[in-house]
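User: Before I run my own analysis I want an independent prediction to cross-check against. Here's the chain; please return only the C-alpha cells and, at the end, one sentence I can use as a sanity check.
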Amino acid sequence: MHGQLTQPSREQLLLSSAVDQSLRKVDFGPLLGQKVYVEEQYLECVDKPYIVGSLRHRVLKAGGSLAPAADAADVILEVRSGGVGTDTSESFVGIPEITLPGMLTLPEVRVAERKSQYGYARLGMVLYDQKTGRVLGDGGVALAETDDRNTYVLGVGPFQNGSLLDEVDDGVKSMP
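Assistant: C-alpha cells:
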C-alpha cells in the first residue's frame, strides 16, 4: 500500500468500499429516462451522506434524472440500511503476559500476529410508482464485505493483504 492508513481513514475506506461493492450488485438500468426521487427517511447508519450521494450518482449514471421532491418524480427509490459498519479481530501465536508471585511479570512474546478489520454494507432498496404507490420490480437487499488484514512475524511487518489494499493500489495506479 502506498503509505500507512490511519485508523479513522481505514475505517472510512472499508465502509465506503463496502457500500460501493453493494451498489455494484444492483441493476439501475430500469431507471433510464425516469425522474427519480431518492427517499432516505429509513436510512439510519454511519456514512449516510456517502450512501445517498452514491445512489444519486448511480441513478444519473443509469440515465435517470433526479427529482427535487417526491411529487415531482415518476418513481421513488426508497433505501434502508440493514447494517453498515466495521468489525475487528486480532490473534497471535506466542506467550501471553504472565504474572508470577512476588510482583514479577514476564512480558508477552508475540511470535506472529494478525490484525484484521472488516467493513460491511447491507442496503435494502425498493422502487415504486410515485402516483399509484405500486412496487416496481422485486426490490431487494445487496450485501458486501471488504477487509484489511495485517500480519506481523517476529515484530516485522505489517505484511498487508485484503480487498482494501487491492482497491487502494488500483486507485493509486489509475491516478494521473
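Sanity check: The chain is about 25% helix and 45% strand.
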